[in-house]
Design goal:
- By secondary structure, the chain is mostly helical.
- The protein is built from three helices and no strands.
- It is elongated, with a radius of gyration of 14 Å.
- The mean pLDDT is about 90.
Length: about 70
Amino acid sequence: MATVKSKDLRLKTEKELMEQMNALKKEQFNMRFQKATGQLTHTDRQRQVKREIAKIQTIMTGLRRKAKSAA
């Protein structure tokens, strides 16, 4: 799975971002179990997921700040 570009994330709504973040958190949770049982094969994916979650959180914080300042 390719990494997600920030500009593509900025085009999504807050609801879409939340859905994507929830999916990534589930994937991250499953990868932790795979690592603990020795079944994880793509260890580099853990890093990608962690960074994608951080990107989404950063964009969502910006959206909330923008909405707060506009109100």
